[in-house]
Specification:
The structure is a single chain. The chain is α+β, with helices and mostly antiparallel strands. It is built from 3 helices and 4 strands; from the N terminus they run E-E-E-H-H-H-E. Strands 1-2 form a two-stranded antiparallel ribbon. The N terminus is likely disordered.
Amino acid sequence: MLSSPNGVSDFAYVGDRAIKGVSSVEGLNINTASREELESLPGVGPATAQAIIAGRRWQSAADLASISGVSLRMVNNWNITA
């Protein structure tokens, strides 16, 4: 993710495409997304991204709420798919 000089993220990447002004990557599939794509979601850092990858074969996005530090409210705001 690119950051502006003040440290606020202005872009998210989907593959090699930069998308400006998004807080989540629309339609991101949690079973196929890269670590970098997962980290573009608000509140997801390296440890959470790795936990998502380790638990792959998620049946639904709501299942991510079973990960420590992830709430159903966060998942609902991410607009992701399984």
